[in-house]
Prior knowledge:
The protein has 5 helices and 6 strands; from the N terminus they run H-E-E-E-E-H-H-E-E-H-H. The longest helix is centred in the C-terminal third of the chain and has 23 residues. The protein is of the alpha+beta class.
Amino acid sequence: TESLSSCTRTESLSIDIDSVRGTRDHRAVAMTAVDPAHADFGKYQLLRKLAEGGMAEIFLANQRGIQGFEKLVVLKRVLPDLSASDDFVQMFLDEARIAARLDHANIVRIYDLGEVNGQYYIAMEYIAGEDQASVISQAKKQKVVVPMEYAAEVVTGAAEALMFAHGMEDA
């Protein structure tokens, strides 16, 4: 597999930068169920598993409320075995409290922190769009280089978010 930096072709990746950038318009979301019955988790309906790591699972979820209220969110749920660790739970709760203070265009918002049947979770903003791994994979398949303006925008956005978060330490 060629790395993007070793691609010999100089044509640009044929992607619409605005569609990759992400949007807070949730109407374009493809709904792929976790299972046919959808998994209920407290006030959330887990729609699709997005990722799983050594500490938590990440889901696209539908937050349900009274009178038909619904909102798409991303739910980060601690793995069951780690929910039994007081130190890990405290670290997770600290993460949520700190992240909830960050209000910046390039940082997802935290909506909820809770516990269901001994499993802790953070519900956060869902932003529709392509993830970086998909963009890079698409570029590799097309044997093209990711456009410089796209890469610069991603790095600039991340740097702005980091600068804001580090500035919060001083506040």
